[in-house]
Write a structure and sequence with these properties.
The protein is an all-alpha fold. It has helices at about 15-30, 30-45, 50-65, 65-80, 85-99. The protein has one domain: Serine Threonine Protein Phosphatase 5, Tetratricopeptide repeat.
Amino acid sequence: MTDHAFENTYNLSNDQLLQLDEAEELMVKGALGKAETMLLEMLKAEPHCIPVLSNLGHLYGRHLSEFETAITYYNKVLELEPDNAWARDARRRYLRYVE
């Protein structure tokens, strides 16, 4: 079994975990287009995957400065998981830039 930086709270498949790890590594390396493509493909396959939605929010907010898009993804996380404090805090951070 592969060691992941987070607990598999969402019961993701090993393939999904590996893809998330790869997408996060791509972001760190600055390969933002590849990371975006990978995450969007993952989202097509599983539209309610909170880790993918969160990573897209992070990608658009932190790396691409597309704050409205980031907020949209964090809103989707919060629709699925209203108590997600991390998504709520991140959304609040980016709302400051668009209000």
